[in-house]
Amino acid sequence: MRGMLIIGLYLLAMLAHAGVAMSARDALRYRTEADPHGLIADMRQQLDKLGGSAAPAQERDLLWLMGTAAVNVNDDTALTEALLRLDSLAAARHYDLAAASAGFLRSRHLIASGNGDGISEALRAAAKVQDATDPKIIAWAKYNLCDAYAMSERASGAMPLCEQAQDAYRALGDTWSLAEAENDQGVNFAGLNQPEKAIELYQRSRQHFASLGAEQMVAMVGDNLAQMYLKVGRAKEALLLSQASLAQEQATGRISDALVSRANIALDYATLGQSARALSTISAAVDDARAAKMDGLLPELLERRSRMSEQAGQPRQALDDAREVIRLLGERNATTLHSDEVSLEARYATRENELRIQTLEHQNRLQELALKTAQAEAAEHVESQQRQALVGMLTKGVSVALILIAGLLYLLLRAQRRYAAELRVQALRDPLTGVDNRRAFMQRATALLGDDHAPRLTHVLMLIDFDHFKRVNDSAGHPQGDRVLSMVADYLSCAIVDVGHIARIGGEEFAVLCPRLGADAGLRLAETLRAGVAALSLPAAVPLDHITISIGVALFDGDRCHDLGSWMRAADAALYSAKSFGRNRVVASSLLH
Ligand SMILES: Nc1nc2c(ncn2[C@@H]2O[C@H](COP(=O)(O)OP(=O)(O)OP(=O)(O)O)[C@@H](O)[C@H]2O)c(=O)[nH]1
To answer: Where is the GGDEF domain (predicted)?
Structure first.
């Protein structure tokens, strides 16, 4: 009874504050974002009170709200509790909706912790309610799938789902959920680099949340909107929005959100050319993060301050911050390496490589900053020495020593420059196979389309994926799998060296980019590569006859493909078809239309 009373009073207070008609249900959803800890405690109390007398639908509802709030604040204890109770409710009552709810909560948790299995978990959850006829459940499953794809930054997969979820919620008159789906769709457009469309969706979402009086949601979507404003050069509007968000976040004690808003405000000031304000704002954010022991956010904030200091002509501060970033990232790497010992999963290996590259890039920058500082200090030194020479204070011996020092300094700077250049190359190279990495591929492809948007002969893109590569690892072990990957990468690099570039863009996925190769030659080359790989002899330690690859080919024709995103999607769809048609084959995207 007391729990009910608390919730009732809370709702009344909130409605009075909002001054508009937020339904009781929406008010509870609001609390999953605005008061997650309080909501979890209240849900627990309610569930305890109801004991075994709760109807399944009511129990599921309370557990879903509790689990949602738990995911939002990373409360693992509450999440585990909600999941266990949902699982047993699903098993005891054959209640699919409870099973799907547990699945979607698991998926959100996986995605929030950067685990790649979140989407498949969401797909399994949706399958549990695929026969549902209640339009509310259908819309709910669509939205949760849309959210899983959008939050995993899989914009092209997410967009149709988010569109369908919006239509369904519009038909049901569920403004809250509509606003959530619109926000997700905005995230998708932002991911596809279409800021104008993203702005449109975020504005719609904000209007809907505002019409419900959900001020914190308005502020949250406002953060997304501000980033897009900045992207399209509307820095003043971005600044106003970020300042409004910051006020909200400070008032409600959301420290980490407030730090992000501060960092955004600093960026807005920098874009508006107010570098002193930008620096003092980002410094305040760094101090707050240190005081609140927000170590996760600290490297990003320091990195931003380092860049701003560099732009403001303060290389010493830039250098100190960059050094600290390296130290913090080093600590993080150490933790990841430890978990790598526990599991040799390729996912960890890939993450570890990413972290190494990230660190390498920072080290690279650090070298450059050290160089700049050394140059500035050397220039100052030489200037002062020259001044002294002018007034006749220099003896001959000191002059000779200075010349020697200048010579040594020159040699040192040259070595540092070489080292920095080498690091820059390493940051673009895949350490296992020695070919370009994904970052290098994206840079190269973007530059190609920027230079030559209407080529006389079409550009050709191939996405290559190993078939059943898991069997190699399972039968011969991961190190042999690595050997096979390197061996095939060597073969492919040699085979395309005259016409294009190859990059390793995922675990066992490669991309080949052939500028102005033309459609016929492109398809012939793909077929040659496929047959060549199938004919390779594998190392003796691998107990398989051969390894095969599937290839999706897309042509940059300026018609169906007009930018890098659509080009890659076309090649990806062709690769997917090559896999579905039985693998070990080449499929051209033009055949799919
Ligand atoms: N040895 C090794 N294996 C890797 C690496 N990156 C990814 N893998 C493995 O590649 C396999 C990919 O598995 P799946 O995505 O199921 O694909 P597949 O077995 O190739 O099957 P299909 O793509 O469906 O033909 C997993 O077993 C990963 O562990 C790597 O760097 N080294």
So the answer is: 457-591
Strand partners, 512: 462, 502
507 lines ligand 1 (CB under 6 A): yes
Final residue of a structural domain among 398, 426, 454: 426
What one-character DSSP code corresponds to residue 312? T
Q: Which of 426, 456, 486 is the last residue of a domain?
A: 426
Confirm whether 536 is domain-assigned.
Answer: yes
> In this model, does residue 394 exceed pLDDT 60?
no
Residues 119, 148 within the same domain:
no
If one residue of 348, 473, 547 were mutated to test the ligand 1 pocket, choosing by the most ligand atoms within 8 A of its CB, it would be 473
Taking only the tens place, the pLDDT of each residue in 187-242 is 999 988 899 999 999 999 999 999 999 988 998 899 899 999 999 999 999 999 99
* Pairing label, strands 436-437, 501-504: parallel
| pTM score of the predicted model | 0.52
C-beta 150 within 6 A of ligand 1: no
Q: Is the CB–ligand 1 distance for residue 508 below 6 Å?
A: yes
For residue 578, how far is the Cα from the chain centroid? Answer: 28
Q: Residue 395's pLDDT is what?
A: 61
Neighbour count for residue 69 (Cβ, 10 Å): 28
Reported ipTM: 0.95
* Tokens of residue 311, six digits: 């732009």
**CATH number of the domain to which 521 belongs:** 3.30.70.270
